[in-house]
Structures are given as structure tokens and as C-alpha cells.
Amino acid sequence: MSDQSFMLVQLTDCHVSADPETDYRGCNPLRELRTLEALVQELKPDAIVLSGDVSEDGSAESYRHVADQVETWARPVAWLPGNHDERAVMEEALDRPGFIAGPVCQFGGWQVVLLDSAWHDRPEGELNDARLAPLDELQPDRPALVFVHHQPVAVNSPWIDKYPLIENHRLWQRLDSRTVRAVAFGHVHQVYEGSHNGIACLSAPSTVANSERDTPRFKLDQAGPGLRWFRLWPDGRWESGTRRA
Ligand SMILES: [Fe+2]
Ligand SMILES: [Fe+2]
Asked: Is 1 contained in some domain?
């Protein structure tokens, strides 16, 4: 393999609170995140994407806890909010060197798009015309990878499929499979791999707590925290996979 590739690591659904001892589904978010250190160092990312629910309580302290950790692993760190985040607080707390909110990042010859599907006090996601506008900036002749917090397809888990990306056709009608190779998301706290309209649909496991797949209710799986990685080549080839601590 050529060494021209770009390694992107997706970390999602960290659910860290202001008090680092606050549990999430019986797990300690910051300690679970830190158990990924050896894996991240092995992958040697050129960039990290935080794909929402970085915080559980939307506090500035929670963002600082996560940022203090992940900036030791790689920069740039690109981020987008999830339904538990507070965008304004996040923006201020993550206003530090190497942290970027896009919405379009140029990484290794790829266009990496960060879409904000989160709304205050709403667990489901939605993309209106303004939130979709970054897709209009895409150059058709360069490969693209789109990140969004909420699942743009059902993942066969009723407990989380009741809070999807609603009106998802508005996203799909804007995506051209000749340019966009994959849509990557978080929110579902499990690994999902499928495709829609010829575009891969991939979730990352949470860095704190995941459910077994295809279950009617959240059922903690014992595999521990995880991440998704993407290896991107400038000619449009790509690979992706998940790893668990
Ligand atoms: Fe989450
Ligand atoms: Fe979420």
C-alpha cells in the first residue's frame, strides 16, 4: 500500500460530564475513553473526528476534559455536535489550536464534511437547507466523506431508531455517489455497516458504552469502548473498520 494515505479516526458518543466521576450507563466516560489510547497510537491518525454527544451535560468542563485527552493523540481534531451537546458552549470550549468545525475539511485529497443535525432539547436529528448547505461546496471531482451525528438509515434497534435523522430524504437527495463514498455517524451506540443509494452507511461504536446489535432495548455489550478508522487515498480508494479496546 502506498504511504500517501490519510488515517482518520472517528471518536463518538463520549458522554463526558463536568464532574469526571459521573457515570454513563454504569461506565466512567473519561476512563473508558482513555482505554483507547494504545489503539489510537497504533493507528497513528493524521486527524480525529468527534462526531457528537462529546458531552453528556453540555458543560464547558466536559468539552475541556475530552479535548485535553484527544489533543495528545492527534491534531487536527474536527468536531460536530450531537443531541446531548450545546453548540455554543462547545464552540467556545473547543476554540483551541488544531480544533476545527469545518464544515468542509480538506484531508488527504478528500473533502470531509461535518453536518450539524442536532437541535436543542430534541433527541432526533434534522437537516434543513442551511444545515445541508456545506454539501453545495463540494467539488464533484474529489472524493468526499460526510459525517453527521444521527443515523441517516434505520439500524434495526427500536430503542434508538425512534430518534433518527428525520426527513432523511433531504440528505439523500443531495448526495451523489460519484463524489460521496460514505456517510459516517454516531448516536446509535453500536456498529452498523450498510449502504443506501450506492453510498456506504457506517456508524462508529461509542467511546463509553455500546449496546448489543438488533435489540429492542439498550443492552450493554461487554466488548468495551471503541472507535472507527478510515484510511483515505487521494485517488478515491478507501478502507474503514472498527476496533474495540
Ligand atoms: Fe450518544
Ligand atoms: Fe446522540
From this structure: no
Domain membership of residue 37 as a residue range: 6-244
How many angstroms separate the alpha carbon of residue 142 from the centre of ligand 1?
Answer: 31
Please name which ligand lies nearest the alpha carbon of 15: 1
Instruction: Check which CATH number belongs to the domain holding 166 and give it.
Output: 3.60.21.10
Beta-carbon contacts of residue 237 (< 8 Å; ≥ 6 apart): none
- Phi and psi at residue 216, to the nearest 5°: -65, -30
Report the distance separating Cα 46 and Cα 116, nearest Å: 23
Does residue 177 lie within any of the structural domains? yes
CA of 81 to the centre of ligand 2 (A): 9
Instruction: Give the global pTM.
Output: 0.98
Question: Ligand 2 centre and the CA of 15: distance in Å?
Answer: 9
| Ligand showing the shortest atom-to-Cα distance for residue 25 | 1
Helices marked H in 10-156 — which ranges? 29-34, 37-43, 60-70, 87-93, 129-132
**φ, ψ at 244 (rounded to 5°):** -120, 145
Check the CA dihedral 230-79-160-25 and report its sign: positive
In the three-class reduction of DSSP (H, G, I as helix; E, B as strand; rest coil), residue 89 is classed as helix
Residue 213 is assigned to a structural domain of this protein: yes
pLDDT tens-digit readout, 14-39: 999 999 999 999 999 999 999 999 99
Cβ count within 10 A of residue 243: 16
Structural domain count, the chain:
1
Name the grid cell of 114.
461535518
